[in-house]
Write a structure and sequence with these properties.
The chain is an alpha+beta fold. The protein contains twelve helices and eleven strands. Strands 6, 7, 8, 9 and 10 form a five-stranded antiparallel β-sheet that branches. Strands 1-2-4-3 form a four-stranded antiparallel β-sheet. Helix 10 crosses helix 11. The longest helix is centred in the middle third of the chain and has 35 residues. It starts with a strand and ends in a 10-residue tail after the last helix. About 15% of the residues are buried.
Amino acid sequence: MQVTETLSAGLKREYKVVVNQAELDRELNAKLMDLSKRANIKGFRPGKVPVSHLRRVYGKSAMAEVVQNTIDAKSKALLEQKNLKPAYQPEVKLSDDEGEVRAVMDGKGDLAFSVSMEIIPDFDVKDHSGLLLTRHVVEVTEDQINETLKRLAANSKSFDEKGGAAEKGDRVTISFTGTIDGKPFDGGSAEDAALELGSGQFIPGFEDQLIGAKAGDELTVKVTFPAEYGVAALAGKPAEFATKVTKVEQSKETAIDEAFATRMGFDDLAKLKEMVKERTASEFTQMSAMKLKRDVLDALDNEYAFALPERLVEAEFNGIWNALVGEMNRSGKSFEDENTTEEDARKEYRTIAERRVRLGLVLGRMGEQANVQVTEQELQNALMARMRQFPGQEKMVIDYYRKNPGAMMELRGPIFEQKVVDTIVAKAKVTDKTVSKEELQTMVQDEDEPASAT
């Protein structure tokens, strides 16, 4: 193998690799010899097919495999020989000259190809053992427990049928048929649907028009679908719903007592309160960890500055930008609505992309040096958590991740990243500071997270 460096600029590298025809021929003969032992061709005894005959019949297809295997092997050898760490899968190109390619496939020419890439930048990992951090802690109060209990009681409230007009907070049972321009549309009809007035379950304005209705009333509800409605065919369209009210019920306040705790599946009210306290504490702990992680990443971002692989930054930026534009299109908003311009927004999000890539590389190097590993059990736990986000579609989720190694890497990345952050926190000087729930929520709201380190 002959290797010639054709480009070395910043992080960009390109090499020309030439494998002589004699080496290709040896590989082809070896492949055909192996095939001759297994080939079953009419007119020849099993295992006795001459290599010369196989070359005439299968020569080109076998050479195609030899060429691909040679490119893979020599590209890998090149990276090892030059001690290169590519930032992404290197790009391999064969000669554009059809005559050269044909000569290679006919076994009459040397194989020449180029390998281009950007390499991972070289930087030293600094000592962060003296890093000063503040862990923001929220204590669970009795008021917070009671607030959660009230929400639970409101969600499990019961209703009694009543006479007279429906009021806000009442539940009505309705049947309706929706039309746009006089024509029914998909999803616009229902029978005996229960609707709590004021809950915001239906299109804005729908519930308000049912206030004052009685059982047996028939009325036409006129509304306009929001411009950002999820179904594009309905977004912004005026609609009419021929509606019949079959029942009106008023809610009964649910007492937070031992009977309520039993209905919720607990031995007594004390056990219910204990569960609420534990879950609330867990929620605050997660918020605190998010804030602490952000502080670690901010500290790292201030410590490191080095050239970044352009393709990684571009890929990260495109992912962020496409998500932003998609959300703006769904909501009908413009850059002007956000008090900015597209040019300024692009600059802002490219800076975010650069931060994510830089931190990803730093965390990757730190994790490598600390020998951070993601266990199979941790991956399975992440997969189970992902499945729970799609109830009823668990098999589809499992099949997707099993068939897509890249998707499994997406699950692995955040776990690896958090474990690296944990190693930094373990060596840092951390001071606890008690804050309110509202203060901590403000701290973590809308915070930008880096891309996975791997």
